[in-house]
Design the sequence.
């Protein structure tokens, strides 16, 4: 599942009921005729904001790894991504 | 040596004047707040953690600045910071277990600007997890209690910040407002809370909830204080491409009054479903007071108000489901190991996220999924256009819009937690301002018979914080209603 929420038994029923109520409210949007209306993704007028393409310092490796639950040799450590064959 | 108990009731302006007169030092001012926190916060629970090393160092530096004759309005002023704003080395968790232990490697722009202006950080305030909620009950740590009635919620999501200012535990608290998360708790706690125009304050260092709606803003106990804090943190920042380089003269015409201004009362807001009689009575009185001060009160309409909540509860969860994908237990925060990477992600997110966050991630991924995208997300974005146009049309007839901030006063803890939709309805008068990117402020406008605060909301056109502040200031002067520090009865008798 896209959201990777790790649902457990019973969760589906719990959320299904609440989400149905919320979606029933949301369905009122279908009452509006919006065929001729453009969508708004960004509410204030901002043109593409560019900056000079010059290198600048970023996070150093120690800072970037400082919060990692598990780090080794300058890398984040994660469980195996592929099974051994 | 001054009596330290009264120092926690001053406004920023009063405190700054007295610091300059050497009536007390910045170190004494921060100590007075630390003592009040020590005495009361185990009952209010506004804070999640404290930063004594920072406040000692910053107060010392403030006293040095004052000794040098620095007249900055925020030098030495004690400040609390919502748990969604990054401060280098200070644990920031967004009210969530999934970020427990996370110490940001940098400080966000709004906070660093206030540090540069001399503010002194007391600690980190509680909030709904990832700022999702209207009561602070969704915090992964503990609920916060309303200083005016400890059995009630402070509002949310920035409930800890609002409660800290209302309880006299801080002079400034920073919050964030995505659908009303500054204005609604300000109303419920009887303090001033301001959400700036989208883009006025840099979001760099803000743990994102819904990026097209989030804005950082201040809680204070006077309108002028809010303006001063906003002025110090606003302005363009190369680290947030949506931040604006427009002139930042928010105190323009601050004391000009409302004579000659047209204030719009949207009928859909005035008669909103579920508005409590006590709230309506307070708003009627506020309208009368503004009319007597010389404002022209005009009837306006926001015809798509009934669709605002529905559009918001597509757009905000959609953006949150994307923003929260980064919390996977690999780079920071809580991690629950699994047999493989997928299991590790799922276990981490299963244990790390609370119920409301999970609900919104589900709603958001659903609204964005193929087959539903047009019906939900695209539709909501189109309705957002209609809501924005409603405001554009209304502002042709008026200079600012006034209404209640929240249809209800603070409600009892636990009374809405089982019914998410009823909780969502808390924001019905505020979320339009986020969808349209408007600046808005909530100012105290009296108490109901049960001694619970009511807030008056002023919304202005984009980039017109000056108008919102001017109207709020005029109301404060005309009505004589001021944000007060709540006195908290001690369980052993006496006042706190």
Sequence:
């Amino acid at each position: 599942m896209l959201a990777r929420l790790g649902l457990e038994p019973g969760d589906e029923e719990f959320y299904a009921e609440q989400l149905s109520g919320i979606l029933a409210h949301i369905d009122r949007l279908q009452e509006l005729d919006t065929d001729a209306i453009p969508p708004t993704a960004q509410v204030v007028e901002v043109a593409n904001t560019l900056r000079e393409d010059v290198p600048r310092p970023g996070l150093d490796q120690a800072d970037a790894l400082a919060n990692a639950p598990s780090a080794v040799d300058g890398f984040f450590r994660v469980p195996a991504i592929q099974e051994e064959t | 040596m001054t009596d330290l108990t009264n120092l926690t009731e001053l406004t920023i302006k009063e405190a700054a004047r007295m610091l300059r007169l050497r009536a007390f030092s910045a170190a004494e001012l921060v100590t007075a707040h630390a003592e009040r926190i020590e005495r009361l916060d185990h009952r209010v629970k506004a804070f999640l953690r404290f930063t004594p090393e920072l406040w000692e160092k910053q107060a010392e530096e403030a006293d040095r600045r004052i000794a040098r004759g620095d007249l900055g309005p925020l030098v030495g002023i004690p400040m609390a910071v919502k748990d969604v704003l990054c401060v280098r080395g200070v644990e920031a968790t967004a009210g969530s277990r999934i970020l427990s232990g996370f110490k940001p490697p940098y400080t966000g722009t709004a906070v660093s600007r206030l540090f540069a202006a001399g503010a002194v950080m007391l600690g980190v305030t509680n909030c709904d997890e990832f700022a999702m909620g209207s009561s602070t009950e969704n915090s992964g740590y503990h609920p916060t209690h309303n200083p005016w009635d400890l059995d009630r919620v402070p509002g949310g999501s920035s409930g800890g910040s609002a409660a800290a200012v209302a309880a006299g535990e801080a002079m400034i608290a920073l919050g964030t407002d995505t659908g009303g998360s500054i204005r609604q708790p300000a109303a419920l706690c009887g303090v001033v809370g301001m959400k700036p125009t989208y883009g006025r304050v840099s979001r760099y260092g803000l743990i994102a909830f819904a990026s097209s709606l989030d804005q950082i803003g201040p809680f204070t106990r006077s309108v002028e204080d809010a303006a001063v804090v906003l002025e110090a943190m606003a302005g363009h920042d190369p680290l947030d491409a949506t931040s604006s380089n427009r002139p930042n003269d928010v105190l323009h015409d601050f004391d000009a009054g409302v004579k000659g201004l047209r204030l719009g009362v949207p009928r859909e807001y005035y008669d909103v479903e579920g508005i409590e009689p006590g709230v309506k009575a307070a708003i009627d009185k506020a309208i009368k007071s503004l009319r007597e001060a010389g404002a022209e009160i005009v009837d306006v309409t926001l015809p798509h108000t009934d669709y605002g909540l529905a559009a918001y509860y597509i757009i905000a969860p959609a953006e949150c489901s994307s923003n929260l994908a980064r919390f996977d237990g690999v780079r920071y925060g809580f991690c629950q190991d699994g047999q493989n990477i997928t299991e590790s992600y799922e276990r981490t997110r299963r244990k790390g996220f609370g119920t409301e966050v999970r609900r919104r991630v589900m709603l958001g991924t659903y609204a964005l999924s193929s087959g539903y995208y047009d019906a939900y997300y695209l539709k909501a974005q189109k309705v957002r256009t209609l809501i924005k146009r409603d405001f554009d049309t209304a502002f042709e007839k008026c200079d600012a819009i006034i209404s209640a901030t929240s249809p209800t006063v603070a409600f009892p803890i636990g009374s809405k937690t089982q019914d998410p939709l009823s909780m969502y309805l808390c924001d019905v008068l505020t979320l339009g301002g986020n969808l349209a990117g408007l600046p808005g402020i909530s100012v105290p406008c009296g108490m109901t018979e049960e001694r619970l605060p009511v807030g008056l909301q002023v919304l202005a056109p984009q980039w017109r914080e000056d108008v919102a502040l001017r109207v709020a200031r005029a109301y404060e002067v005309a009505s004589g209603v001021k944000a007060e520090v709540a006195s908290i009865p001690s369980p052993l008798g006496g006042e706190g």
